[in-house]
Design goal:
This protein is an alpha/beta fold. The protein has 14 helices and 18 strands. The protein has an eight-stranded parallel beta sheet with strand order 9-8-7-3-2-1-11-10. Helix 1 (44-57) packs parallel to helix 2 (92-104), helix 4 packs parallel to helix 5 (260-272) and helix 11 runs parallel beside helix 14. The longest helix is centred in the middle third of the chain and has 18 residues, at 320-337. The protein is globular and about 80 Å long. The two termini are 36 Å apart. Bound molecules: 1-deoxynojirimycin (NOJ). 1-deoxynojirimycin (NOJ) binds at residues 74-75, 77, 114, 185, 221-222, 287, 348-349.
Length: 577
């Protein structure tokens, strides 16, 4: 395929079947990216309009979070039709135009596959409810009779990820209280029954539907679920929620089950069957929050999935010891299977990095003997209540970006990270949409604070997200006036220009992306330092005190000004040695 050459050291990602090993992928959350039709919600036309911005930023690919028809009860991860576009976002023709335009600009396109569950508005689920117990329609989902007198109790003690039980009871066609269906997430997200061959066939066909339209790959939502112990046994009760926890312990019945690998391998065969097409074989990235890495690494075994997000780096606290431990474990584990690592600083499910790094507790200490002793709900609630020093957080987030983009492998940038956006922690309660808010009885606010629509231009909301007379679906904070794309574009010290400079170097320097690193003599104490190739070094200072940089080195890009060869505290630099 003839495609634009961006940078000068690498072939265009469109000419390179191994593109995914080094790619920087930008995550678009469609609802919050750009609103072209002025209804307060982002849309595909808005995404098309802004594609040149992403090409200029210097990323290699985009990943689009679900854009399918959906009642949006979990932000689109409740899919009512896997082969169409939500009318709120546009049409299939718009999606096709988006994919072609991205390719014209030299960008690959990943979209989201949500295979564990659908929406309760999916026609097959509606048919299952209507068809009654014992029907072939019900067997596509996980329906069971309840326990106790009258079947009034759920079939087991599992809790849902957003709070409450993982089961909801339906009313049978004759009007009587009926069976229960399983939903690991919200009641609006019934789990598919992956032991039914029709489900597997349907997902093969969905993959082909989008591959045939030119999509380069999929991010796989909760790639560690789908297969389950169909005996559906009770599990240990979490004292915090009162429900059985379906967490991913070894042998857990709902996550990382022994029947999962064949599902992934089957998808891989579908993706590989496109090897002879113009776009080449298609690819997958797994979303799986799974520890320890020895278990996660099985997801990228040869013949299984291509890449899997390494969330530990995102969840790690701001400390050299913890980050070094994560980097080492991640690279060693990936080396054993020949897959590239996949670095992430944030996404639509996690507190924005600039805010996280501005709190007194910045994350998990992965250098500790037992890094997983804290319940995540308890931990998240404690941290959410802490005040934030946003200047400190942003300074550290800039350094983290240079670390992420220098490490071997691929990297993901969540929309707005390149602007240094902070989490909006004070959204009005009546604007909250995350199912967690309702399901937790209004005790956990959930993830809306990282999903606030992007600020593009102007000095007041909606900051160019859409027309000025229409406010977006979540309110933007006034202080984003200084963080718009427009405000940052001409400021050489802005976070946007830091990303642009780093991504330009990544394109121009073949030592970056996939490959290996060597620790540099400066590595140790509060400093993480490594080299790539003969002349490139990345030095990150996690401490407050200045650090002397190697004599004679040239600064390529720095997250904070480097004066007199000294790297200030909470800063990172890329050097030409
Ligand atoms: C992970 C997605 O990233 C998240 O937003 C969603 O709520 C769950 N999976 C359920 O689909």
């Amino acid at each position: 395929m003839t495609s634009p050459q961006r940078g000068n050291a690498r072939p265009s990602v469109l000419d390179d079947p191994q593109w995914w090993r080094s790619a920087v992928v930008y995550q678009i959350y469609p609802r919050s990216f750009a609103d072209a039709n002025g209804d307060g919600t982002g849309d595909v036309r808005g995404m098309i309009d802004r594609l040149p911005y992403l090409a200029e930023l210097g990323v290699d690919a985009v990943w689009v979070s679900p854009w399918y028809p959906s009642p949006l009860l979990d932000g689109g991860y409740d899919v009512a039709d896997y082969r169409d576009i939500s009318p709120d976002y546009g049409t299939l023709a718009d999606a096709d135009a988006f994919v072609s335009r991205a390719h014209e600009l030299g960008l690959r396109v990943l979209i989201d596959l949500v295979p564990n569950h659908s929406s309760w508005e999916h026609p097959w689920f509606k048919a299952a409810v209507a068809a009654g117990p014992g029907s072939t329609e019900r067997d596509l989902f996980i329906f069971r009779d309840g326990r106790g007198p009258g079947g009034d109790e759920p079939p087991n003690n599992w809790g849902g990820m957003f709070g409450g039980p993982a089961w909801t009871r339906v009313t049978e066609p004759d009007g009587t209280p009926g069976q229960w269906y399983l939903h690991l997430f919200d009641p609006s997200q019934p789990d598919w029954n992956w032991t039914n061959p029709k489900v597997a066939d349907e997902f093969d066909s969905i993959l082909r539907f989008w591959f045939d339209r030119g999509v380069d790959g999929f991010r796989i939502d909760v790639a560690n679920s789908m297969a389950k112990d169909m005996a559906l046994p009770d599990v240990r009760v979490d004292p915090l929620t009162g429900y059985g926890t379906t967490e991913s312990f070894e042998g857990a019945p709902a996550w990382d089950h022994a029947d999962l690998p064949p599902i992934h391998r089957r998808w891989r065969e579908v993706a590989d069957s496109y090897a002879d097409t113009e776009l080449g074989p298609r690819v997958f990235v797994a979303e799986a929050y799974l520890d320890p890495i020895e278990r996660l690494i099985r997801y990228v075994d040869p013949g299984r999935l291509h890449t899997t997000f390494n969330f530990d780096a995102m969840l790690s606290q701001w400390s050299a010891d913890s980050q070094r431990a994560v980097i080492t474990k991640t690279l060693v584990a990936h080396h054993t299977v020949g897959a590239p690592a996949t670095w992430v600083l944030g996404n639509h499910d996690n507190v924005r990095v600039a805010t996280r790094y501005g709190k007194a507790v910045t994350g998990i200490d992965f250098s500790a003997d037992d890094p997983f002793s804290l319940s995540s709900l308890e931990f998240d609630q404690q941290v959410a209540a802490m005040p934030v020093d946003i200047e400190l957080g942003r300074r550290r987030a800039r350094a983290a970006a240079l670390l992420e983009l220098a490490l071997p492998g691929g990297a993901y940038v969540y929309q707005g990270e390149e602007l240094g956006l902070d989490e909006v922690e004070d959204l009005p309660e009546d604007s909250l949409q995350d199912p967690t808010w309702e399901r937790s009885g209004h005790t956990v606010r959930g993830r809306d604070g990282c999903r606030v629509p992007l600020p593009w231009s102007g000095t007041e909301p909606p900051f160019g997200f859409g027309p000025s007379d229409r406010q977006p679906w979540l309110p933007q904070p006034e202080h984003w006036a200084g963080l718009t794309v427009q405000a940052q574009s001409d400021d050489p010290t802005s976070t946007l220009n830091l990303y642009r400079a780093a991504l330009a170097e990544r394109h121009a320097n073949p030592a970056l992306g996939d490959g290996v690193l060597d620790w540099h003599p400066l590595n140790g104490g509060d400093v993480v330092a490594f080299t790539r190739g003969d002349r490139f070094a990345c030095v990150v200072n996690f401490g407050a005190a200045e650090v002397d940089l190697p004599a004679g080195s040239e600064v390529i890009v720095a997250s904070s000004p480097v004066d007199g060869g000294r790297l200030p505290g909470y800063a990172a630099v890329w050097l030409r040695l």
